[in-house]
Amino acid sequence: MNRNILVTYEPGAEEKGIYREMLEGIANVYCLAAATDIERPELLNSADVIISLSFSKKEIDPTEISRLKNVRFIQLIYAGADNIPFSLVPEDILLASNAGAFAEPIAEHVMALTLALSKNLFSKYKILCGGRFDRSGYNRKLRAGICGIIGLGGNGREIARIMQAVGMNVYGINRSGKTKFPVDFVGNTRDMKKVLQAADVIVVTTPLTRETRNLLGKKELDWMKSDAILINVGRGDVIDQRSLYEHLASNPDFRAGIDTWWSEPGSGEDFILEYPFCQLSNFIGSPHNADHVPGAMLHATQLALANVKKFLLGEDIRGVLNRDDYINLG
Which of 24, 204, 295, 319 has the CB geometry, 3.0–4.6 Å to 96, for a possible disulfide? Predict the structure, then answer.
């Protein structure tokens, strides 16, 4: 018997084609975003599986979660799960993220930020545009240096691959302290000091959980080399905001590149920073667009639907979330 799948967002035309191709004959697919106020309760009541971008309140109101009486599985299109109100979701519902779905473009973005900072591209460009041909000082060489990756999961492994391609050694941190991916060192959070002290480039790609909030604060920043480069494509709150600003302001040779911010505005809203990072010459940022490349959503949709299909067929699935990591996260 076909199951009912409820999609909480409006997929694009090509993504809808993937839904038809992968789930036709296996499940009935309905779209909550296109439903009327009268239709929404029935769709929620009859759903067996939910597919959502991030299960945020923009897609499904928290008051509607109580209607998910038949749902047994929620699959995210995105990797981040910090938007999910886990305390409201019944414990018998299995949830899975789409970790690593955007790994390739994110890894390229990390490399772009790293190169821009290590080669002084923006600071020298501004001087050049001001009429000075300033060749003083040195750029940084990446080859033979150490890249420390905090969060050696799907994104972290792809970042490791691209860093290794330019000749960097890779030290990784993950929860288990183990990996099958070929790196020069892997450890868990107990090895954080070792990795931060050794690394020339540190990339944060870990999700935001109860354990990782403010994982890098003043103490950890002080462990890093005075001229280290710190890149964050995980979540803003993994790094303590005030500590990072003060460290950058007082250590001009230290550099940072940020794609994921502590507070991100909605569409049409102004971007307001609590600290004036953009006035610093040793800082660059991008508007959380590391994964915005043509075809990225199609690839992520394929991976997510493959997981849903496995669930419906009773096969092992990937990316299952541990509720204890997120309960009372806020």
Answer: 319
Helix ranges, the chain (H): 13-23, 39-46, 103-118, 121-129, 154-165, 192-198, 218-223, 241-250, 296-312
Cα distance between residue 298 and residue 240, in whole Å: 34
- Domains detected in the chain: 3-100+295-325 (3.40.50.720), 103-285 (3.40.50.720)
Exposed / middle / buried, residue 182 (Cβ in 10 Å: 0-12, 13-18, 19+): exposed
Tokens of 120: 């002084």
3-class DSSP state of 134: coil
18: Cβ contacts below 8 Å, ≥ 6 apart: 298, 301, 302, 305
Question: What are the residues whose beta carbons fall under 8 Å from the beta carbon of 45, sequence distance 6 or more?
Answer: 67, 69, 70
What pLDDT score was predicted for residue 329?
66
Residue type, 71: V
Residue of 196, 236, 242, 189 lying closest to 211 (CA atoms): 189
The answer on pLDDT for 144 being more than 90 is yes
> What is the enclosing helix (H) or strand (E) of 201?
strand 201-204
Please state at what angle helix 13-23 crosses helix 296-312, rounded to 10 degrees.
20
pLDDT digits (tens, 9 = 90+) for 295-309: 999 999 999 999 999
- Residue entry with tokens 């909550």: 32
pTM for the predicted model, two decimal places: 0.94
